[in-house]
Amino acid sequence: MTQPVLSVRNLEVEFVTRRATLRAINGVSFDIAKGEVLGVVGESGAGKSVTGLAVIGLIDPPGRIAAGEIELSGTRIDHLPLEEIRRVRGKRIGMIFQDPLTSLNPLYRIGDQIIETIRTHTSLSESAARRRAIDLLAEVGIPAPEKRIDGYPHEFSGGMRQRVVIALAICAEPELIIADEPTTALDVSVQAQIIALIKRLGRDHGTAVMLVTHDMGVIAETCDRVAVMYSGRIAEIGPVQEVVRNPLHPYARGLMGAIPTLAGEDKRLVQIPGSMPRLSAIPPGCPFNPRCAFAFDRCRVERPEPIRQGTQSVACHLFEPAKETAA
Amino acid sequence: MLAFTLRRLLQAIGVMLAVGVIAFAMFRFAGDPVNQMVSIDTSAAQRAEIRHSLGLDDPVLVQFGRYFINALQFKFGVSYQFRLPVSSLLAERLPATLELAICATVLAMVAGILMGVYSALRRDTILARLFQAISLIGISLPTFLIGILLIYLFAVTLGWLPSFGRGEVVKLGWWSTGLLTVSGWKAIIMPAITLGLFQMTLIMRLVRAEMLEVLRTDYIRFARARGLTTRAIHFGHALKNTLVPVITVAGLQFGSVIAFSIITETVFQWPGMGLLFVQAVQNVDIPIMAAYLLMVSLIFVTINLVVDILYTVVDPRLRSTVSRAT
Fold it and tell me: Which of A114-118, A239-243, B134-138, B273-277 has the lowest mean pLDDT?
């Protein structure tokens, strides 16, 4: 098997506050291969964005990576010195944030922001960087890029700004793009375009993509594999068709059941009762047990470890091999 | 852009007209200046003669019209106490006040921005906390007290700096400058610190608060995710965004620096317009008071205008909304 672009092992992220140490990410492991799009879904606060920020090294104090390893194409990038992780950011990992309206510095021309980023990571001259910036803008679908390059962010629409943000994220040809809810703040009609763009860029450049979202439609349409996160852990991870059609984890089942379909108009949408526990009050055992219809005694005491089920991997005691359950 | 500038210019002229009316009204309501100039045994005829020579016996409207037309040509009448044209008195004093105000403002801006940026970026260091403490003192101690303390320390006790005056001045045409001689520089240090301290602490606190605010924004986080150097982020992206409101405050404060230099000039016997004004108040020298009022408001209005225009230069968003609005 070829080496994955991104490999995260047993990642733990905690936030040290005056009252307590809150664990936002608790033992998350996943891989993303070259050219693969991994979707990360889950409710707000499940730790999706924090995982993305941890990978690019942008967890700010009081948060910190407490344990685990993050490898980018075989080299460890967690706990790198500040200057070295800075060289990784933007150069080897590009990041796209949720709100394109606030992601760009309002006082600088978009061209200057792109050129600045290109010149930070390459040895291109000012004029060569400018030509590259125009090419990039054309590639992300900005019309008349040679004119628009001298525009200020406020002169662009939300969708166009997100395209500029994407151009900024890919300007040094990174191996990995982390897109943190890139379409949440956009119009529905624009969302599809942006998703198609990210997908195309990933395919054309062989870039691995980590797509954080809570939109199952986007996941089903875009991703190769999907990770369902719950309360700082991965509940289930696997190929997207499998997880969407045949979810194993009770939480994933609930999540898929909550997607409206055109066919089942007469059916009521299934809701997951209750809400995700706060970081300060995660129940012992499986964090999902208070809301789980299938919970049994063991779920309240012992934390389930990921178990392989065919191409999927699920962290749930229901899928424990039979002999161990008997024992 | 042009229409915007013109509109602001018209507003400025309106303000100046209103101030002109108030300045003129002082002549009518601030008592009879003739009584101030003559002794008790001056005869009524002599009083009338003085009154006539100063034009104080004409109808109000005539006086106002005359005052207005003269003011447009920078003629503010004759000082009651010095018997000299007010405009030449002010012109003589203007360089001293402007030099002091500019030195104080430059000092306040440079030190204030540096200290503000430092205490925002290195929030938890001892030096940053010290700056915060100093700024609290600077913002709460009255100007005259700071001046007197400085004089006591550096002029009386240590004897390093002169306690009053401007030192030697050099004439450059009509402008007299103290910035070309060593004694001039020595003389300006303490007044400039006294005058600038309040602005400095104000700017420092403003820069610190704005910078902390800007550092929390999404575009700074995105700039970090793009792998820009810390330097480029702090001093390129963050500082430029911080300076937008700082320009306004610093600009508007320059007007107050000139207006409030009265106190500093009195403490240090600085031969500027402020000192002239204080003497004028003591002697009910209304032409000087009125002219000073006009001068200060002209400076304020001009600065406001410049700041408004500067704002649009710094912030491209304003530039486009402004041109769209016109």
Answer: B134-138
DSSP assignment, residue B151? I
* Cβ burial A188-206 (10 Å sphere, 16+ → b, else e): eebbebbbebbbebbeebe
Question: Which residues of B have a CB under 8 Å from any CB of A?
Answer: 217-219, 221-230, 232, 236-237, 240-241, 244, 314-317, 320
Asked if residue A147 is part of any domain, the answer here is no
Q: Give B-chain residues touching A91 at CB under 8 angstroms.
A: 227
Work out the average pLDDT over A92-104.
87
Yes or no, beta carbons of A107 and B315 under 8 Å apart: yes
A152, B227: Cβ pair inside 8 Å? no
Helix and strand counts by DSSP (H, E) for chain A: 13, 12
Q: Tokens for B145, please give them.
A: 């007290």
Question: A-chain residues within 8 Å CB-CB of B241?
Answer: 105-107
Domain carrying residue A223: 6-92+172-326
Distance CA B114, CA B204 (A): 8
Smallest CA–CA distance, residue A154 to chain B, in Å, is: 7
The tokens for B266 are 């009195």
| CATH code of residue A60 | 3.40.50.300
Q: How many domains does chain A have?
A: 1
Q: What 3-state class would DSSP assign to A165?
A: helix
Does A117 touch chain B if contact means CB atoms closer than 8 Å?
Answer: yes
Would the CB atoms of B219 and A106 count as touching at under 8 Å? Answer: yes
Q: By CA distance, what is B244's nearest residue in A?
A: A107
Q: Which two tokens stand for residue B171?
A: 């004439």
- Say what the ipTM of the complex is: 0.83
* Residue B191, pLDDT above cutoff 60: yes
**CA angle A98-A102-A103, nearest 5°?**
65
Residue A108 covered by a domain:
no
Mean pLDDT of B85-110: 87
Average pLDDT of every residue of chain B: 83
Q: What are the DSSP calls for A68-124, one per residue? A: EEEEETTEE-TT--HHHHHHHBTTTEEEE-S-HHHHS-TTS-HHHHHHHHHHHHS--
First to last CA, chain B: 8
How far apart are the CA of B107 and the nearest CA of chain A, in angstroms?
Answer: 27
Q: Which domains does chain B have, with CATH numbers?
A: 1-81+286-326 (no CATH), 87-282 (1.10.3720.10)
For A188-222, write each residue's pLDDT tens digit: 888 888 888 888 888 888 889 999 988 888 888 88
Residue A54: inside a domain, yes or no? yes
At residue A134, the pLDDT reads 92
In a 3-state reduction of DSSP, which class is residue A267? coil
Chain B's closest residue to A56, CA to CA, is B225
Residue A104 in domain: no
Residue from the list A86, A94, A103 with its beta carbon closest to the beta carbon of B229: A86
| Tokens (6 digits) for A130 | 């400018």
The beta-carbon neighbor of A102 closest among B217, B224, B314 is: B217
Distance CA A114, CA A35 (A): 24
